[in-house]
């Protein structure tokens, strides 16, 4: 096997579902359908948020960033999955693995923090409505979004760089569909307890604490909504907030099950199904969740479609 710098393999073999080849075709077909659907859905949300003046509020600035993140997130892994599932060659070059590792974790880390910021935005809008424009002004929104991206990049660059320094002792087989930090740590040889501990501590700040803040925000929101006298106001608040909560649980649930336990204790198939879930299912579902449960987005999307057809 050819080596790079005598320490890293020239390429990795992604075993995926090699032990269950009958799963490859159904998953390939599902990915082939869901990937373009996810891309079109998220592009549609970005377009309507930019083109409709009614959707220029902070909530939709964050939603636009979420859609962009989901597009990049799913693009960082799905094309590689399709290539491997659709051919007998189940490999990825070392540099390809490194690029995927950084991009996948930048998008994932940023999304963790962004979902927490979105819950704070809803908290201010519902629990502090008179101060909303003062607290969530454009400068604050830009600062929050920049901080979220910086946090995601810092996490990914630091964790991925440390993980890539682990010795592999000539092993070039990864029992996964993609290059992901917990699986690389599990595959590495030698002392890796420090890496496992560091990953767990970092993910407490990236997953557990933001999730607790989200739940605390929605506990306050729930109390405020129940006190509303207007049934229409309650309905709109519940529609918007329930959409965000569904997205939170779809994303945080699988991520916590993967990252808040030592990589050595991860079962063989867990990373594969979790990667399919938070890398494919969530980005595909998000546009539908926000569209179907949000009257403003549905109305803006309808106006965009009508304007396209009327112009033709």
UniProtKB/TrEMBL annotation:
<feature type="transmembrane region" description="Helical">
    <location>
        <begin position="25"/>
        <end position="48"/>
    </location>
</feature>
<feature type="transmembrane region" description="Helical">
    <location>
        <begin position="60"/>
        <end position="82"/>
    </location>
</feature>
<comment type="similarity">
    <text>Belongs to the G-protein coupled receptor 1 family.</text>
</comment>
<keyword id="KW-0716">Sensory transduction</keyword>
<keyword id="KW-0807">Transducer</keyword>
<feature type="transmembrane region" description="Helical">
    <location>
        <begin position="197"/>
        <end position="216"/>
    </location>
</feature>
<dbReference type="InterPro" id="IPR017452">
    <property type="entry name" value="GPCR_Rhodpsn_7TM"/>
</dbReference>
<feature type="transmembrane region" description="Helical">
    <location>
        <begin position="273"/>
        <end position="292"/>
    </location>
</feature>
<dbReference type="InterPro" id="IPR000276">
    <property type="entry name" value="GPCR_Rhodpsn"/>
</dbReference>
<feature type="transmembrane region" description="Helical">
    <location>
        <begin position="102"/>
        <end position="120"/>
    </location>
</feature>
<keyword id="KW-0552">Olfaction</keyword>
<keyword id="KW-0297">G-protein coupled receptor</keyword>
<feature type="transmembrane region" description="Helical">
    <location>
        <begin position="140"/>
        <end position="158"/>
    </location>
</feature>
<dbReference type="InterPro" id="IPR000725">
    <property type="entry name" value="Olfact_rcpt"/>
</dbReference>
<keyword id="KW-1003">Cell membrane</keyword>
<dbReference type="GO" id="GO:0004984">
    <property type="term" value="F:olfactory receptor activity"/>
</dbReference>
<dbReference type="GO" id="GO:0005886">
    <property type="term" value="C:plasma membrane"/>
</dbReference>
<keyword id="KW-0675">Receptor</keyword>
<protein>
    <recommendedName>
        <fullName>Olfactory receptor</fullName>
    </recommendedName>
</protein>
<dbReference type="GO" id="GO:0004930">
    <property type="term" value="F:G protein-coupled receptor activity"/>
</dbReference>
<keyword id="KW-0472">Membrane</keyword>
<feature type="transmembrane region" description="Helical">
    <location>
        <begin position="237"/>
        <end position="261"/>
    </location>
</feature>
<keyword id="KW-0812">Transmembrane</keyword>
<keyword id="KW-1133">Transmembrane helix</keyword>
<dbReference type="Pfam" id="PF13853">
    <property type="entry name" value="7tm_4"/>
</dbReference>
<feature type="domain" description="G-protein coupled receptors family 1 profile">
    <location>
        <begin position="41"/>
        <end position="290"/>
    </location>
</feature>
